[in-house]
Amino acid sequence: MDSGIPTSQPLEWLGAIPEPWRWWLPRIGVALLGLLVLRGVGRSVLRMLRRRRPPVINPRLQKYNVDYAELIRRQRELAGQVIATSTSARLAGYRIVRQVDTVFVEGYRTPEEAMVALKAAAVERGANAILNVCTDRTASGRCTAAGDAVQAAPLPARPGKPPDSPPAV
Asked: Pick from 158, 160, 71, 153: which is nearest to 116 by CA?
């Protein structure tokens, strides 16, 4: 099987290339190699610039794009407006003005996070206290909290007895 290339000298076939092409062929090869390197560098630069831009979220998925640090900060701020919570149907020292709504939150890592979210949900509905509070952990390990959001007002001090005096024995 003769391929037409003499085997005595490996580069002898270069003699078959016309003279002007012998000068241009290596330079074309180097130029192509340079273009490949530039292409790789250009892609790297574009990738770096793309990483610096904020991500573009599909409008249908915007509701899931949540800044959790800001959400937790806001929930803690709202939870501070709750004046009292109770696991029973009564609040000591307060009278219930009106029941606002039943609130329920789920999907939190700890019961404390669920309670903060429950208080924030109650304040968003116009309540300042929560009755019948209960927390639970689901089978998946997430925590839930539920309660009755109410508006409460402090009871007036009893006449004739200072509010901070110890009880009589």
From this structure: 71
Handedness of CA 101, 138, 64, 50 (dihedral sign): positive
For 128, other C-beta atoms within 10 Å of its C-beta total 19
Beta carbons of 102 and 146 less than 8 angstroms apart: yes
Is residue 29 helix, strand or coil? helix
pLDDT for 99-112, tens place per residue? 999 999 999 999 99
Residues 48 and 78 in one domain: no
Q: Structural domain of residue 94, as residue ranges? A: 67-154
Cα-to-chain-centroid distance, residue 139: 23
Residues 73-94: pLDDT tens digits?
999 999 999 999 999 988 888 9
Q: Residue 96: beta bridge partners? A: 152
Asked whether residue 163 is assigned to any structural domain, the reply reads: no
The pTM (predicted TM-score) of the whole model is 0.59
